[in-house]
Specification:
WD40_repeat_CS; Sperm-associated antigen 16 protein isoform X2; repeat; disordered N terminus; single chain; WD repeat; about 30% helix; about 600 residues; 4-stranded antiparallel beta sheet; WD-F-box_domain-protein; alpha+beta
Length: about 600
């Protein structure tokens, strides 16, 4: 099948597009004598008779429809394909948008707004638009702002931003130098801390060694007592003459005296019976005689004196009932008697092997009980200054102690989740209270009764019968560990404080909460009423003493403690206030 004769130039284009030499393929085209070109369709079967291998030509998305071998249409398709390819290869470049310079009136308005000249801006806008309306001035007639002004403004803004950054960088550099100046001090303190830890470890080792030696001596003494009692008949018969002639050495004399003393104490304990709890105690009417004519409650306390009493934090302060002295306890294992007028230390008590947590005086003021982290409670004779009795039985540190109004019992609370009542006459534990599920942090006898109040880290207050050891009632309401709880002087209100600074007042007769005061988040370490029961003081971990007026509900603050306030107590007449802090000082307020 032949087509119309065409020139050689379009055919060459077709050859280049199809990637083949049409003139060289004698099997597909013939040249006539007149110079015309013809296309001939050739079908190639799978099994060809000749040995020539035909190569398949890739179509490259270009094909001629079967049955349409018109050369003109084929050339038209090739040209369209070429034109599309050239269009796709061209890069479309959009003309850049020229920055429109700012007109003068907008420049002036922006400048006045930037400088905050609002009144000038109002005057300018009113006069300008008035001229525009009168067609005296035309918008855009004055032209645009030269680029130099715009560039100056941009540079000025950038300069201002750079100055601000430079100021911040200077402050950061100064702060870094300031912190760097603390590094030598911190290094020295760290070295001192390590030295103190080593000294503490050596002291603990020496103490343990001494305790071990004492235990060995006590065991030896017990063995000697047992051996002496067993061999007593033999010794009495056979060695009488030898003992008469031999001289007794100092070691034998000391052992003999210790043995005799232990026997004497054993006999005394056998003869002494347990004390009985009083059943019909009446409060001393003279105790509330001063409350008949109650003076207005005092809240305007001023810091009067600061006495450095202990080397470590002060944990407790007690006011003597008859003398102008204070009893202070500290974490330096000591308790001290301090004169109120000048702050002189009159006496220092030794005996505990760990920090002191609490102290309390009996009604006569002649005896004192102290509790300590060494898990013991000690009774002291304040006139002689010596320890007269030590109670051992708690498994962990003892947090608090309280004296019964009759003077025959002392109660204690401990980290081991128990509370105990100790009989002073029989020198033994009369009862152990179980019920709290966490550390019992505070304990106090109800005035002139056999009722005990305890506060625990399990967030509950419990009321106990000291005679039976049973828990009569539990009070719930605190959301955090209870640090302290106390009765007011008349005994009808309970005050408690917890580890997040929440103080609660409870009606003891109805066993219901009255009010809750949140002065946190710093912990409330101790609460105490004044002698009239009208004012409640709270020692806070933030260094503030909060005074609560129970009548009006108003809260007053005493500022002046430079460290955490651990304890606070009123004088008997309510005219003075005493606080102890973690810096080892006792402060008087009046």
């Amino acid at each position: 099948m032949a087509s119309q004769p065409v020139t050689a130039s379009p055919l060459r284009v077709l050859e280049e597009e199809l990637g083949m030499d049409v003139t060289a393929a004698k099997d597909t085209a013939e040249v006539s004598a007149e110079g015309a070109y013809y296309l001939e369709q050739v079908s190639i079967t799978e099994t060809s008779e000749d040995d020539y291998e035909y190569e398949e030509i890739p179509d490259d998305n270009f094909s001629i429809p079967e049955g349409e071998e018109d050369l003109s249409k084929a050339m038209q398709m090739v040209q369209e394909r070429t034109a599309d390819t050239q269009i796709l290869e061209q890069k479309t470049v959009l003309p850049s948008k020229q920055a429109v310079p700012e007109v003068i009136e907008d420049f002036l308005c922006n400048f006045l707004i930037k400088m905050g000249m609002t009144r000038t801006l109002d005057c300018f806008q009113s006069e300008w638009y008035e001229l525009v309306q009168k067609e005296v001035a035309r918008l855009g007639a004055l032209g645009n702002v030269p680029d130099v002004y715009t560039q100056n403004m941009l540079l000025e803004s950038e300069n201002k931003s750079l100055k601000t950054d430079l100021k911040h960088y200077k402050q950061a550099a100064e702060l870094k130098l300031h912190y760097a100046s603390y590094e030598p001090t911190i290094r020295v303190l760290h070295e001192k801390h390590n030295t103190l830890l080593k000294q503490k470890m050596l002291t603990s080792l020496e103490r343990d060694k001494a305790v071990g030696q004492i235990s060995v001596l006590q065991a030896t003494l017990r063995h000697m007592e047992i051996g002496h009692s067993y061999h007593a008949p033999h010794v009495k018969v056979s060695s009488k003459c030898e003992r008469g002639n031999a001289s007794e050495g100092p070691t034998q004399r000391s052992l003999r005296e210790a043995k005799e003393q232990s026997k004497y104490k054993a006999k005394m304990k056998e003869n002494i019976k347990d004390s009985e709890f009083p059943s019909d105690m009446q409060p001393d009417q003279n105790l509330y005689l001063c409350n008949e004519n109650i003076s207005p409650a005092k809240f305007d306390y001023k810091l009067n004196d600061i006495f450095r009493i202990h080397e470590l934090p002060v944990s407790c302060i007690a006011v003597h009932p008859h003398k102008e002295v204070l009893i202070t306890c500290g974490e330096d294992h000591l308790w001290k008697i301090v004169e109120l007028s000048k702050g002189n230390v009159l006496f220092t008590g030794f005996g505990h092997t760990d920090w002191l947590s609490d102290c309390c005086l009996d009604n006569s003021g002649s005896k004192m009980a102290t509790s300590s982290g060494d898990s013991t409670i000690k009774l002291w004779d304040l006139f002689k200054g010596n320890c007269i009795l030590t109670f051992e039985g708690h498994n962990h540190a003892v947090w608090s102690c309280t004296w019964h109004s009759c003077g025959d019992f002392v109660a204690s609370s401990s980290l081991d989740t128990t509370s105990k009542i100790w009989d002073i006459n029989s020198e033994r534990c009369r009862c152990t209270f179980y019920g709290h599920t966490d550390s019992v942090n505070t304990i106090e006898f109800f005035p002139y009764s056999n009722i005990l109040l305890t506060g625990s880290a399990d967030k509950t207050l419990s009321i106990w019968d000291a005679r039976t050891g049973k828990c009569e009632q539990s009070l719930y309401g605190h959301m955090h560990s209870i640090n302290d709880a106390t009765f007011n002087p008349k005994g009808h209100i309970i005050a408690s404080c917890d580890a997040c600074g929440v103080t609660k007042l409870w009606d003891f007769r109805k066993l219901l909460p009255i009010v809750s005061i949140d002065v946190g988040p710093s912990p409330g370490n101790e609460v105490n009423f004044n002698s009239s029961g009208q004012v409640l003081a709270q020692a806070s971990g933030s260094g503030v003493i909060h005074l609560l007026d129970l009548k009006s509900g108003q809260i007053y603050k005493l500022m002046g403690q430079e460290s955490e306030v651990n304890t606070v107590v009123f004088s008997h007449n309510g005219e003075s206030l005493f606080s102890g802090g973690s810096d080892g000082t006792v402060r008087t307020w009046s």
